[in-house]
Design goal:
This protein is of the alpha+beta class and about 240 residues long. It has two domains: about 5-35; about 55-225, Peptide deformylase (Peptide Deformylase). The protein is built from seven helices and five strands, in the order αααββααβββαα. Strand 4 (about 160-175) and strand 5 form a beta hairpin. The chain is globular.
């Protein structure tokens, strides 16, 4: 055997476990890049992102006779699941890939205290919102005063911007049991309603934002980690 090869073999034998682990890991990484899982069919258990055609399709009304059907109730269950998973304050059916006029909203006191400071709560007139499923919503503006606040969206992952919204609205629709209801909302609750109504009408907050204010709130973390970071879903603010 060539005398120059012997030391190399000895080194490999000494580090065989490390070498095998390193090679196996690299092979898995390479292979995973070739084999991709098949995309799921709507309704998704994740939130789709800007660019998906569903976000730019005007949602269709749900026939009232279909509200109690298994299909619609399953969609509502998916919305609730995804909303909890990503800690959302509002989520529309188009955001899980189904262009139907349904959205849910809610903000517990626990989530309010977790995501906002007392100063923010006072400045934005925030308050807890009872969980609500809204089907075939109709909205009427009751106070046309425009309020500009920072807003984000789970379908525009990792970014925020200043967005003008009306102060107060009236909301009518059906709940998940098919019963009609109406409510008046102002402040942050009215903002959530307007945001979700936009989704049903194929609009995003980026369509009406102050373009110069668009930013990534995690930009410092990106720099600190030399770009090796995945932008998280940010709560609706």
């Amino acid at each position: 055997m060539n005398m120059r090869i012997k030391p190399l073999i000895a080194l490999i034998n000494q580090q065989s476990t490390t070498v095998r682990h390193f090679s196996y890991k690299n092979i898995l990484t390479w292979y995973s890049g070739l084999v991709r899982p098949k995309p799921t069919k709507p309704p998704h258990k994740h939130i789709i992102q800007v660019g998906d055609p569903c976000l730019r399709a005007i949602s269709k009304p749900v026939p009232t006779k279909d509200i109690e059907t298994e299909e619609v109730q399953k969609l509502i269950a998916y919305l609730k699941h995804v909303c909890r998973k990503y800690d959302c304050y509002g989520l529309s059916a188009p955001q899980v890939g189904v262009p139907l006029r349904i959205f849910i909203m809610g903000l517990t006191q626990k989530a309010l205290d977790k995501h906002f400071t007392k100063k923010e709560i006072a400045a934005k007139a925030l308050k807890a919102i009872e969980p609500l499923v809204v089907i075939n919503p109709e909205m009427k503006v009751t106070d046309y005063t425009k309020v500009v606040l920072e807003e984000s969206c789970e379908s525009v992952k990792g970014f925020c911007a200043d967005v003008p919204r009306y102060m107060s609205v009236e909301l009518k629709g059906y709940d998940e049991d098919g019963h009609t209801f109406s409510m008046n909302a102002s402040g942050f609750t009215a903002r959530i309603i307007q945001h979700e109504m936009d989704h049903l009408d194929a609009k995003l907050y980026t369509d009406i934002m102050d373009k110069k204010t668009l930013y990534c709130p995690h930009w410092q973390v990106v720099n600190e980690r030399c770009g090796k970071v995945e932008l998280p879903y940010g709560p609706f603010k």
